[in-house]
Amino acid sequence: MTLQYGIIGPGAVGTTIAYELLRSLDTDQVHLFGKKAWKVPYRQRDTGEQSELQTQTLAHFDDTLDVLFIAVKTHQLDHVIEQMAHVIDDDTLIILAQNGHGQLEKIDYPHVYQAVVYISGQKTEEGVIHFRDRILQVQEDEFTSELAQHLADTRLELQLKDDIEVEIWYKLLVNLGINSVTAVGRQTAAILRVPEIRNLCRNLLEEGQRIAEAAGIVLPETIVEDIMKIYAGYPDEMGTSMYYDIISGAPLEVDAIQGFMYRKGQELGLYTPYLETVYSILAAAENGKLNYK
Question: How many Å is the Cα radius of gyration of the chain?
Answer without folding.
Answer: 19
